[in-house]
C-alpha cells in the first residue's frame, strides 16, 4: 500500500518536472526563434524596395493629392507617409491648370519629408517645364498667370525664383533607379564607371534597374550613354542658358516663339528635339513589332530592365508593352483631360532562397555565394482596382547580404 502511494506521488512529481522543463524548453526555443526572425536584420537578410511613379499632373493639385493618397505616398494630411522608398514623378506638372505654384511646393515639401525618413523623391522636367523655361507659353492659362501676380513675376519665379531654382537643383531630365543597392544609388551611370566596371557588369543584377524620362529614350538618340549623366549634363547646361537670359524673352503668344538661346550647342538642341528624351513618342505610337524588336538594344545600353515614361496619354490605363519593358504612365490625371487617376508601383524583393540560410548570421556567409530569390512586381494602381502588369521571379547567385 505504501509502495503504491509512493509510486503515485513519484509519477505526479515526474510528470510535473518533465512537463515544466519541457514547456520551458519549448518556450525558450520559441522565444529565441521569434527574436531571430523579427528583430535581427542579420538573421533574415532580405531586401525590399518600394517605388511609386506618377505621370503628368498638369496643374491639378486635388487630383495629384488623390493619386498620392491612393498610392500611399502621402497620408491623409498630404504628408510623406514613410510607407515607400522612392516617389518618382515624370514631369509635366505645369500648364493646362492653375495649381502650378502649389504643386511645385508640394514636391519640395515631400522631398524634404522623404529625406527625413530615409525616402527619396525623384523629379523630372517634362517638355512643358522646358517650354515654359524657353518662353513658349501656349498652354498657360491667364488664370494661372494671375496666381503669380503678373507675367514678369512668373518669368522671375521660373528662372531665378523658387520654381526655377528647384528645377535647377532638384529636377533632372533622365534618371536610372537601381532596384538593388549592390549596383549603386539612384542615378548611378551605366555603363559603370572605371573601377567598379567588372563588379557591376558581371553581377546578375547589373540591369536590375529602371529608367525614367518624360518622353522616351529613342534608339536613334545619340547621347544615351553613359546613362543618365550624358542626358542630364546637356539638360543642366541648357537650363542654365535659358534661366540666365536677362531679360527673359517675351512669352509666346502674343510674341513670336523665342526659340533656344543663340549659344545653344547642337547636342543641347538635340536633347530638346523630337527624338530626344522630352518629346519622343515612338515607344507609345509605333507597332508592337517595331517597338519590341528595338527595345532590348536600348535597355542593354542604358543598364535597365524597363523604361517608364509619361507624355503620351492613354486616358483609360497605364500602358505596358513588350512584357513590361516599356511602361507609359500618363493617363491624363489632370481635370484638363479627365482621364484615369493612376500610379505605378514597383515592389522589389531579394530574399535568401533557402529559408535556413536566413537564420545563419551574415558574418558566417561573408564572401560566400548564396542563392537568392528575386521578385519584382509591377502594378498599376487605380481608384477602383489594382492590376498586376509584371510578375517576375527568378533565382540569382551572389553575395547580396548586408544591404
Ligand atoms: C503541464 O503544462 C501545462 C502547460 O504549461 C499545464 O497547463 C499543466 O497543468 C501541466 N501539467 C502538470 C501535471 O503539471
Ligand atoms: C502634416 O500635415 C498637417 C496638416 O497639414 C500639418 O499640420 C503637419 O505639420 C504636417 N506634418 C509634418 C511632419 O509636416
Ligand atoms: C532642393 O531640395 C533640397 C532637399 O529637400 C531642399 O533643401 C532645397 O531647398 C530644394 N531647393 C529648392 C530651390 O527648392
TrEMBL record:
GO terms for molecular function: hydrolase activity. Keywords: Signal. Residues 241-267 are annotated as: Disordered. Residues 1-15 form the signal peptide. InterPro entries: Calcineurin-like_PHP, Metallo-depent_PP-like. Pfam families: Metallophos. This is Calcineurin-like phosphoesterase domain-containing protein. It comes from Piloderma croceum (strain F 1598).
Amino acid at each position: 500500500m505504501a509502495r503504491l502511494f509512493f509510486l503515485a506521488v513519484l509519477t505526479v512529481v515526474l510528470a510535473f518536472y518533465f512537463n515544466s522543463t519541457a514547456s520551458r524548453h519549448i518556450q525558450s526555443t520559441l522565444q529565441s526563434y521569434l527574436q531571430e526572425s523579427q528583430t535581427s536584420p542579420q538573421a533574415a537578410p532580405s531586401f525590399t524596395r518600394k517605388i511609386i511613379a506618377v505621370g503628368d499632373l498638369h496643374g491639378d493639385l486635388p487630383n495629384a493629392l488623390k493619386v498620392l493618397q491612393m498610392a500611399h505616398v502621402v497620408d491623409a494630411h498630404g504628408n510623406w507617409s514613410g510607407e515607400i522608398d522612392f516617389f518618382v514623378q515624370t514631369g509635366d506638372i505645369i500648364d493646362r491648370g492653375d495649381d502650378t505654384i502649389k504643386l511645385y511646393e508640394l514636391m519640395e515639401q515631400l522631398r524634404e519629408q522623404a529625406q527625413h525618413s530615409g525616402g527619396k523623391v525623384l523629379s523630372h522636367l517634362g517638355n512643358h517645364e522646358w517650354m515654359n523655361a524657353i518662353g513658349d507659353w501656349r498652354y498657360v492659362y491667364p488664370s494661372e498667370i494671375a496666381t503669380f501676380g503678373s507675367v514678369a513675376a512668373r518669368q522671375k519665379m521660373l528662372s531665378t525664383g523658387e520654381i526655377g531654382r528647384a528645377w535647377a537643383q532638384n529636377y533632372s531630365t533622365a534618371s536610372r533607379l537601381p532596384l538593388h543597392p549592390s549596383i549603386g544609388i539612384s542615378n548611378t551611370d551605366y555603363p559603370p564607371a572605371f573601377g567598379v566596371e567588372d563588379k557591376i557588369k558581371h553581377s546578375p543584377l547589373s540591369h536590375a534597374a529602371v529608367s525614367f524620362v518624360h518622353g522616351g529614350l529613342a534608339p536613334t538618340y545619340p547621347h544615351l550613354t553613359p546613362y543618365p549623366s550624358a542626358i542630364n549634363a546637356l539638360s543642366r547646361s541648357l537650363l542654365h542658358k535659358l534661366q540666365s537670359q536677362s531679360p527673359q524673352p517675351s512669352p509666346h503668344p502674343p510674341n513670336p516663339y523665342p526659340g533656344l538661346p543663340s549659344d545653344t550647342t547642337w547636342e543641347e538642341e538635340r536633347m530638346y528635339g523630337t527624338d530626344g528624351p522630352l518629346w519622343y513618342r515612338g515607344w507609345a505610337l509605333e507597332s508592337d513589332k517595331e517597338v519590341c524588336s528595338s527595345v532590348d538594344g536600348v535597355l542593354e545600353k542604358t543598364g535597365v530592365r524597363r523604361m517608364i515614361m509619361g507624355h503620351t496619354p492613354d486616358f483609360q490605363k497605364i500602358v505596358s508593352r513588350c512584357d513590361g519593358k516599356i511602361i507609359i504612365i500618363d493617363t491624363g490625371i489632370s481635370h484638363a483631360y479627365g482621364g484615369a487617376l493612376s500610379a505605378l508601383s514597383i515592389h522589389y524583393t531579394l530574399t535568401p532562397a533557402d529559408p535556413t540560410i536566413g537564420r545563419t548570421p551574415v558574418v558566417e556567409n561573408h564572401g560566400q555565394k548564396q542563392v537568392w530569390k528575386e521578385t519584382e512586381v509591377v502594378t498599376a494602381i487605380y481608384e477602383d482596382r489594382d492590376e498586376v502588369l509584371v510578375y517576375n521571379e527568378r533565382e540569382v547567385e551572389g553575395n547580396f547580404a548586408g544591404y
